[in-house]
Amino acid sequence: MKRNLLIVVAVLAILTLANVKANAQVTTGPVPVKIILTDVLAITLNNNNEVLFNYAGVVDYQTPKTVSVANQLSVISTKAYSVKVTANALFTVITGNATPVPLSVVHVAATATNPASLATLAGSVALSDAINTPVTIASAGVPSLKTDFSIAYSIPDVTPLIGKMPGTYSTNLIYSVTQP
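^ that's the sequence the OP posted. Answer follows.
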């Protein structure tokens, strides 16, 4: 009889434990999960070294000049974007010049160094002769966490430099990035 009583107690204990396990599977209400997105757009100048065109002899005036700056800009954008460049002032004026050196003598071309960026590159474009008037050098850039651009500066035609007084002519270029 003691044995039967122990079997009954053991069976009841097992059923009680099974019942507790079943009660532990009760579900609760939903857990909300949210993702909040904000447009991000940034341009970083990685290299602001001076771009120098030196015309010191006959050969310099007879051949187009190009100065390339590798990975000069980085763009971060969560949407398609365009990269633009403008001069913030005309070239400095040197006494004795009848007309200043036009900004359009300098051409700018961008190359995306990340093959996946697939921005539409404008090729070599002349700076606008109107200050603070940007020209587009890359458009329809693919959204990315970082796209690097190398920039090539060139003077393909020296005609506007002929007849100018010797000296250093300078201006500053400003790069910007916009989302449509």
